C-alpha cells in the first residue's frame, strides 16, 4: 500500500509540478505528516525531490526526472482516461485506486502526448451527475470496510459473511458463496449462492461483511454476463405486474426510469407511444404513473385504472372542499 502511495506521489509531482504538503495530502487521502514522511523516504531512495520554502513554496522534482513505467499508445491512454472520467470511481469502493491508475496512465505516455491525451479526455463526459432535467442519480452508500471485505472474498474465492438488511426485514447475518460483483445504473449487486441456491444482494443493503477462510463453493471460471442475464430473467418472472400504458414521447424517459422492464413498445395514435412495461407491484405502478400526471394513461390492468381514478377523485374532493370553504368565507 505504501509503495503505491509513493509512486502516486511521484506521479503527482511530475504531472503538476510544485505542490504543497496539504495538497498532496488531499490528493492521496492521507495526513500531512504522512506526506512529509513519504517525501523523506523518497529522498533517501534517491528520488530527486526537493522543498521550496516561502509563500509559493512546496515540493517538486528536479527537471528531467522520469519514472520507470511502461508506456501506452495515445488511443489506449485516451480510452482509459475517458472511462475513468465517468462515475466509475463509485463502483465497488475503488475510487482511490482509480485516481492512482489514471495518474499512471498519463505518466506512461511519451511526454509529447501527455498534454494531448489529457486535453482530449476533458472533451468527453461520461455519465454526469445530473441530466438535462437536473435529476441527480440516487447514490448508494456501502461502508468502506464492508466493501473491502466483499472484494477480497470475491477475488480470493472465499466464503463471505454479510450482515444484510433485506426489504421489510430485520438485518441478519448470512454466509454466502460469492460469484461476482455487478454495477448497473449506479447500483451495485453481489451475485452469490447460499446453500446452493442463487442469491442476488444489493450492496447498499450490506451493513457489514467478513471474509471467511473457507473456500467458496463455486466454479473456477464464470461467465458473469450470462449469470447476470439469467438472474434478471429469474427476477422478471417473479410476482410482478404487467402494465399497458400510453405515454407522451417527451416523458418516455421519465417512465422508463421507474419501470422494472420494458416488454414491448410501438407508436400509438396522436403521436403518443404505447408500451408494455413491468412494475414491482400495483402500488409501484400507481406511484410511477401518478408522477406523469396527464402525460400518461394506464390502459390495463383495470385495477390500476381504478386505483388512479380513486386517487384523482380523492385529490379533487380535497381541493373542491377547500375552494368551497374559501368561497363561503368570502360571502361571510
Describe this structure in words.
The chain is an alpha+beta fold and 332 residues long. It has helices at 2-16, 21-28, 32-44, 74-84, 95-108, 111-121, 144-156, 224-236, 252-256, 282-291, 302-331; strands at residues 49-52, 58-61, 158-164, 172-184, 187-194, 197-202, 206-215, 241-247, 261-267, 273-279, 296-300. The protein has a five-stranded antiparallel beta sheet with strand order 6-5-4-3-7, with helices on both faces. A four-stranded antiparallel beta sheet has the order 9-10-8-11. A hairpin with a 2-residue loop joins strand 5 (187-194) and strand 6 (197-202). Helix 10 crosses helix 11. The radius of gyration is 27 Å and the shape is extended. The protein starts with a helix and ends with a helix. The mean pLDDT is 79.
Quick recap of the structure?
This protein has 332 residues and is α+β, with helices and mostly antiparallel strands.
Number of helices: 11
Our measurement of the CA-to-CA distance between the termini, rounded to an integer number of angstroms, reads: 78 Å
Strand content: 15-25%
- According to DSSP, the number of beta strands is 11
Percent helix, as a range, is 40-55%
Strand order of the largest sheet: 6-5-4-3-7
Order of helices and strands: HHHEEHHHHEEEEEHEHEEHEH
* Class per helix and strand makeup: alpha+beta
Q: Report the radius of gyration as a whole number of Å.
A: 27 Å
Mean pLDDT: 79
